[in-house]
Design a protein that fits this description.
Length: 217
C-alpha cells in the first residue's frame, strides 16, 4: 500500500517588533488536515536565514512532501499574496532573529538566478476569488527570509520526482494592525480558510489555469 502523500506547510517565528507571526498561527491550525488524499504536516521555521535552511532540509528529509508551501507575514499587504517567483538573493533590510544581515549574497552559490513557483498560482488565485477571499499574484517575495525559504523549497522540489513548491505571503492579523497606523489586516479565520482553498486548488490542478493577473508595477 502506498503511503499518504504529504504536504509540508511552513510558518515562521515572529520577527521585527512583532510578538506573533500570523503565518504560524494559520499554518498550525491546518496541521493534520486532509486535502484530497493528501495530509498536511505543519512545521515552524525560525526567521533566521541559516537555521531556516537547515530545518527546512531536515523537514523535507523527514516528511518527503509532494507539495511544499511556505507561508510568511508580509506586513502592509492587504491580500493573500501568491508568489510567482523566488530569487537567488539575500538582502536583509533588518537583521534576522540571530542578528545576521546578509547583503547581496546568493541563497545558493551554484543555483539559478530564480525559480518560478511550480504550484498552479492562477488556479489558486481563481479558487480564492471564487470563495470571496481577497487574493493576488505577487511578483516579488522580497529578499529576506521568506524569499530565501521559497527559493530553497523550489530547489528541493526540483530534486524530488513529482514534487511542487510555492509560497504565499499573508497580511497582519487585526491584533497586529490595531497598533499600527493604516496597516491592512486579515482575520485568522479567513487566512486559514484561504490556505485550505489554495492547497485544495494545488492538489486538484497539476497544470495551471490560463488567467490574466499581471501587474504594471
Ligand atoms: N516574513 C518575513 C520572514 C518571516 C516572515 O513571516 C519575510 O517576508 O521575509
Amino acid at each position: 500500500m502506498s503511503k499518504t502523500p504529504r504536504i509540508l506547510l511552513t510558518g515562521f517565528t515572529p520577527f521585527g517588533n512583532e510578538d506573533i507571526n500570523p503565518s504560524w498561527e494559520a499554518v498550525r491550525a491546518l496541521d493534520g488536515r486532509h486535502v484530497g488524499d493528501h495530509r498536511v504536516v505543519a512545521r515552524l521555521l525560525p526567521t533566521i536565514f541559516a537555521d531556516a535552511q537547515r530545518e527546512l532540509a531536515l523537514a523535507v528529509q523527514d516528511i518527503e512532501p509532494v507539495i511544499l508551501l511556505g507561508v510568511g507575514q508580509a506586513g502592509g499587504r492587504s491580500r493573500l499574496s501568491i508568489e510567482r517567483v523566488a530569487i537567488n538573493v539575500q538582502d536583509a533590510r533588518l537583521p534576522d532573529n540571530a542578528g545576521a544581515q546578509p547583503i547581496d549574497e546568493p541563497v545558493l552559490s551554484e543555483g539559478p538566478a530564480a525559480y518560478f513557483s511550480t504550484l498552479p498560482i492562477k488556479a489558486m488565485l481563481a479558487a480564492l476569488q471564487a470563495q470571496g477571499l481577497p487574493a493576488e499574484i505577487s511578483n516579488t517575495a522580497g529578499t529576506y527570509v521568506c524569499n530565501h525559504v521559497a527559493y530553497l523549497m523550489l530547489h528541493h522540489a526540483t530534486r524530488r520526482q513529482g514534487a511542487r513548491a510555492g509560497f504565499i505571503h499573508i497580511p497582519y492579523l487585526p491584533v497586529q494592525a490595531a497598533r499600527l497606523p493604516q496597516a491592512p489586516s486579515m482575520s485568522q479565520e479567513d487566512v486559514v480558510r484561504g490556505l485550505g482553498i489554495a492547497l485544495q486548488a494545488a492538489v486538484e490542478h497539476r497544470t495551471d489555469t490560463r488567467l490574466g493577473a499581471g501587474a504594471l508595477d
